[in-house]
Specification:
Elements: E1 6-10, H1 17-28, E2 31-33, H2 43-48, H3 50-75, E3 83-85, H4 91-99, H5 102-116, E4 124-129, H6 132-142, H7 152-172, E5 177-182, H8 192-212
GO molecular function: ATP binding; deoxynucleoside kinase activity
Keywords: ATP-binding, Kinase, Nucleotide-binding, Transferase
Family: Belongs to the DCK/DGK family.
Length: about 210
């Protein structure tokens, strides 16, 4: 049996990760894994006071993502059922590095390493990014109450951090297929041709990977 497709979609807040993950799951009939966001009881407070609530917020996300990955490994990947997720666990380190104090970050990394060392790893990563105006526009359009207090400077730094993180990820994981798209150039929600372009790329990547196993 060859590798089981495990696709993750990543990028900063508001770039369209969940919308694209849903579309890919529907196109290929893959199991969809969506991260838990609205259920985080600390997130609203975090956007109001990042320094005060960052550790609680990041630990909640880490524990829930760990549990989700554990579940998909047990119930889907081990049963040879492909999965597409709207996040990659590496995002935890992107957010933690920006928001946690040094002492908190050291503890966080230790916990992260313990929880994730044997977690399932994706074989295809789709990376989305966009300029700050596009991100702010899309965040406003989806109208989540907990996101109304996002600081644009925080979002800009987050986008920059994602760029650096994906670059490092590609260098350290040459065996993983990374597909990159600009949210400024592609609107896969409103433009069917844009979505079909991405779906075609994913299909080609899946075929290429299956032929090299």
């Amino acid at each position: 049996m060859g590798e089981i497709p495990f696709i993750t979609v990543e990028g900063p807040i508001g770039v369209g990760k969940t919308s694209l993950a849903k579309a890919i799951a529907e196109a290929f009939q893959f199991q969809l894994l969506k991260e838990i966001v609205d259920e985080n009881p600390f997130l609203g407070k975090f956007y109001e006071d990042i320094e005060e609530w960052s550790f609680q917020t990041e630990m909640f996300f880490l524990c829930n993502r760990y549990k989700q990955l554990e579940d998909i490994q047990k119930h889907f990947l081990h049963q040879h059922q492909p999965v597409v997720a709207d996040y990659h666990i590496m995002k935890n380190m992107i957010f933690a590095q920006q928001t946690l104090k040094d002492s908190q970050y050291i503890k966080y990394v230790q916990i992260y390493d313990i929880l994730t060392h044997d977690m399932p790893k994706p074989n295809i990563v789709i990376y989305l990014n966009a300029t700050l105006p596009t991100l702010l526009k899309r965040i406003k359009m989806r109208g989540r109450e907990i996101e109304k207090n996002i600081d644009p400077s925080y979002l800009a730094q987050l986008s920059s951090d994602y760029e650096e993180a994906i670059k490092t990820f590609k260098e350290n994981n040459p065996q993983v297929t990374v597909l990159r798209y600009s949210g400024d150039e592609l609107d896969f929600v409103k433009n069917k041709e844009h979505l079909e372009h991405i779906i075609s790329d994913v299909k080609s990547s899946l075929l290429k990977r299956s032929s090299t196993i």
